[in-house]
Design goal:
With about 200 residues, the protein is mostly helical. It is built from eleven helices and no strands.
Length: about 200
């Protein structure tokens, strides 16, 4: 990536990083990539359109920045949670799923936009997001593989099981609502139960 491209992917100096990400996620989630505009995002961020263009050439570049940043945040949260959980595969899986639930609850738009708008990325921008998504998959794959080796998980294919667990976590973007009936703890319990069931873990009982 060129120096200029890297600068434009960096966090703005005088637009708060979280403000830009939050504004972009709001607009992309509400209007979709094609319905979004730099003017609309600048308005939500309470800055000028020209100011936003100082850092991002286009809404394509802004989408790439947002998706890479949020994908990296998720991967970091999962890695940290699993490290704290210790060596038991079941406990690590529970920790990873819980961290994923907390990520979605803290910023539901990030999960939604990451799934629905990722298709609009291409080239280096797409590859950069894939790198961070691979980190998330690696967390779950490592847990499943360790569980199979230790006999804690009774599945025949680690890759299939990993993808199934990730799909359960991703599915929250389709149904989670901040004003829904289930509490955070109730959602965690259900998501963990599904994940442990997918790997056929005795810990589920």
């Amino acid at each position: 990536m060129s120096e200029r491209g890297a600068r434009r992917r960096a966090a703005p100096n005088f637009i708060d990083r979280e403000t830009v990400i939050g504004a972009a996620l709001q607009v992309f989630a509400d209007r979709g990539f094609h319905g979004a505009s730099m003017r609309g995002i600048a308005g939500v961020a309470r800055t000028s359109q020209s100011n936003l263009y100082n850092y991002f050439d286009s809404k394509d570049g802004l989408l790439a920045f947002v998706l890479e940043a949020t994908a990296r945040e998720l991967a970091e949260k999962l890695e940290a949670a699993v490290q704290i959980a210790g060596g038991d595969p079941g406990a690590r899986l529970e920790a990873a799923v819980t961290a994923y639930v907390d990520f979605v609850i803290a910023g539901p738009r990030a999960s939604t936009v990451g799934i629905t708008e990722f298709r609009y990325l291409s080239g280096e921008a797409r590859a950069a997001v894939v790198v961070e998504r691979d980190r998330t998959e690696a967390v779950f794959r490592g847990i499943v593989e360790d569980g199979i080796r230790s006999g804690d998980f009774q599945v025949i294919d680690a890759g299939f099981a990993m993808r199934a667990v990730v799909t359960v976590c991703n599915s929250m973007s389709n149904w989670y609502r901040p004003d829904g009936e289930l509490s955070r703890d109730e959602i965690v319990a259900r998501q963990v139960d599904l994940a442990l069931g997918l790997v056929r873990s005795d810990r589920r009982g």
